[in-house]
């Protein structure tokens, strides 16, 4: 396939960015989207031009590093991660725009790379369970009912990619936050800090500049791990309980 790429180039956090047009040729439909960008970068390197900066790590849909806005959609036309998106989802002659996540809380570092450390600070604010470490406890000493374990597992599938924020018109991180709160709130070990967790994480969410949820649902549609909006309901339920305890 031969493709026209319009890619956001930005030399640094304070630099003025712009869309730059590139042509790529002989792209195999079996390549991943990132491999296609690798081909373009090899070409730019060979010409002595600055390669395009973009993030990736596992390239297996696990780490959440590879977020890109592709022709206006978070991770492109399929509901998957960019590294798991293949060129067979495009057609010969297509024009594809490639941009970084757009959200105040995810400032651009360079080209397509954004700073997602706001997510780390949300986790630091409360997305953990405090335990005394020591010998591993006997596996059946803390029974967890199967439906609760399944729900916790479904929420724990969130890989922190940020597609929910990028897709949301409010740049809200409530789906990410809801996934963490639901995951930890389903376990007995998560109960002692449950109320403090939701208040601290939501406070940090607002401090980071993420917007509020207005139930639009773009987050769930864009989520490569199929995190459902019921986790946002859970977040709101936990917040209400926490506020009742404080009054
Ligand atoms: S909720 Fe989904 S879209 Fe949002 S960070 Fe987690 S995996 Fe990514
Ligand atoms: S590079 Fe790890 S999820 Fe895409």
From TrEMBL:
Residues of the signal peptide: none
Protein name per Swiss-Prot or TrEMBL: succinate dehydrogenase
Organism: Intrasporangium chromatireducens Q5-1
UniProt xrefs under SUPFAM superfamilies: 2Fe-2S ferredoxin-like, alpha-helical ferredoxin
UniProt KW 4Fe-4S keyword: yes
Similarity field: Belongs to the succinate dehydrogenase/fumarate reductase iron-sulfur protein family.
The EC number(s) this enzyme carries: 1.3.5.1
Cofactors that this protein relies on: [4Fe-4S] cluster; [2Fe-2S] cluster; [3Fe-4S] cluster
Lineage summary: Bacteria, Bacillati, Actinomycetota, Actinomycetes, Micrococcales
Top EC category: oxidoreductase
Keyword Oxidoreductase (UniProt): yes
Residue intervals of the 4Fe-4S ferredoxin-type domain: 149-179
